[in-house]
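Follow-up to my earlier ticket, as requested here are the two runs.
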Amino acid sequence: MRVKRLLLVILLAASGWAGWWVWGSQSLRAAHEDWFAERRADGWVAEYDTLSVQGFPNRFDVRLTGLSLADPATGLAWEAPVFQLMRLSYRPRHLIAVWPEEFLLATPRGKLGVSGQDLRASLILRPDEPLALERANLAAETLNLTPAEGGAWAVAQLSAAVQREATAEATYRFAFTAEGVAPPAPLARGLPETLEALRADLKVGFDRSWNMAAIEGTRPQPRKVEITTAELRWGRLELAAAGRLEVDAEGWPEGRLDLRAQNWREILRLGRDGGMLPPGLADTLEEGLSLLARLSGNRETLDLPLSFRDRVVSLGPIPIGPAPRLVIR
């Protein structure tokens, strides 16, 4: 009799769990269908071929195929043959996002083909604010970025992390490391094929938190940027930066970054060859910085402030052009 009662309890519990999972999967599917319908009502392109929820009994795995998203307000678009968003049924605030081996991104500046292996992210959402980010990690074993106009970049291994600062409501710490970064061949002329180091550690304060509304509508905008360290090493080239910037409501930065550049003439050449510096400006900078280097006693290393003021950026005492606007589309 006791065995029968135990079996009955087990069967009732299993049936209850199965029923709960079916209800949860249907609710999750309906929520995703509603989200796509709301985006279309807002004027987006928001289409998919199939939407399924799998993972019984312990997971809810949302799988989309033929995905196409485009926000007309920002000009951002994303196309992917498949995308997965997975979570444990008993840990709904912990999500795993898995991208396909190839997909397409588009911005107002052009299209970008992305390919790679094992590109995925882990996201933890806050319990006190619906669908607000607490922390996230992103990793890829290999990553290839191919702009439509040519000039592919390759990354052997990528890792990035973001975590909300407990003492500041909308401030996040970012850490980024890329290994085996291979820039386009013309840019690497006379240098090793891959960068030895590319890493950064910084904090960014936004005007509001990152949550689902940041995807559906306007994005949170940076208001404070504190770079603890940013480093690039590429053969004989070394570039490091640290400092703080304040950003106004229109995206114009004010502040200073302290730069250290080893073999800075080669860095100027890369800027000129890569189209980041007009030839005339690169020549003017080389003349002025050569004088500063001679005065410092080390002709190959420069320690200078990169200053942002009145919408102009200056390297040491030399204005080099309009400051970039820090606006997230």
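Run two:
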Amino acid sequence: MGGKKEKNSIKVIIIPLYIDSREPDDIVRLLKRENLAIEVKTIPSGDYVFGEVAVERKAILDLISSVTTGDRHFWNQLETMRNTYTIPILLIEGPINHRDRIVMGILTTVILFCKYQTIFSKDKEDTAKWIADLFTKYGVGKTGRIPPPAVIRAATPKQIKWAMLQCIKGIGPKTANKILEEIPDIFSASYDYHTIKAKLRKVKGLSHIARELLVGVKANDI
């Protein structure tokens, strides 16, 4: 007598809310109070992930520091998350000073020119509420995948800067090349205001709005 043949089965995963192990313990504790299915692990891209949704949390001071020091890590994170997930979201945590030209320059680039979905939270408690609401509405009881390997596109430092410049409205491939010819380390803090101002004057076809964002001052001052 032959044994019963087992039918082929497809493994279905009811997705939990995956939290990167480097995230603050107090946010994890707040989320656990919501009685959500949570799994803390190292995530290659994103801090809070479920299915095709990934959220990268950035405290406002860390965000400013990561951009003003000339470190490309923040921009690389956004690009990698966009390549890895269908719904990438940036969550900016902390009070926003709308008179801070650096802060507004970053937000303008991220939201308007890079067209990145962005949400804001007041503090860690507010962050936990945002994440819990998102997961409750779009993740609870749904099937999906575990966080996949990060999709990273190979690029040279110059190619990354070239792509970042084109996030700014009015800067195309040719203008980005001209800017890098004049200022190879455009995103480095080693350049002072007057140096960048003088060098950008040599770039033909660069709009006042684009120069305003690159220098961080009013267009009329350039």
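The only thing I checked on run two: The chain has a mean pLDDT of 83. Let me know what else you need.
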